[in-house]
Amino acid sequence: MTATTGRKAILVVSFGTSFAETRAKTIDRIEEDIAGAFPDCRIYRAWTSKVIIAKLMRRDNIQIPTVKDAVSQMLSDGITHVVVQPTHLLGGIENQQMKEEIESSRASFSSLSFGAPLLAATADCRQTIRAVMKELPRLKEDEALVFMGHGTSHEANAVYPVLDRMLKDEGYPRAFLGTVEGCPTFDTLLKRVSLLCPKKIYLVPFMVVAGDHALHDMSGEDEASWQSRFRAAGFQTECILKGLGEYPAVRRLYIEHARQAS
Fold this sequence. Notes:
Structural class: alpha/beta
Oligomer: single chain
Radius of gyration: 19 Å
Strand content: 15-25%
């Protein structure tokens, strides 16, 4: 938390991660950049995953505030004007629950507003794709790139097929995006990628944090991981373990969303 003398605050809400190295590169950097962009505001943190919060306390003795904790602390500190900026990708289940929880305290603040998650509009999707692709290897004719998104049972999952099509529209016909828990599925990706007959496939997480899913479901040595399944299908693979929060242009999008809510 960054202290200032004002009574305005930005509450940065993330799902969270138990991996310290990627946390420092992603969630911490987003919070630091937001603090730099809003020097007249106090910056507060909250995570929505109670499982991860409990794990960090048990394993590392690190206490991360829940949304309820952060709201209570802001009220105790005399904060009157709050902008809540989620680092969530989508306006899905986690984001909705977070908003509902904070909305119950609206009467306690003079003003309360919510910044949009990363992929709130078509322009956000396009900017995110451009930000990421310009920092990844330029694909050769015998290579392909596959992003792993999280996916959700919420209707917000519709953004993932849109992103897959948008990659092609942006001039990346050999880039694909699938999900672990939604659609497009791995099986769909395998069929589409196989049509290009690439020798090598780059695997990249399309998640804010390159955490558990990236390390296990994407790049793990277990036979069920995406890397193992692509290898079993005859492709060479290379994993790039870089979360979206590591891209400066992506962090600037979060700042812009916070500005729009201010």
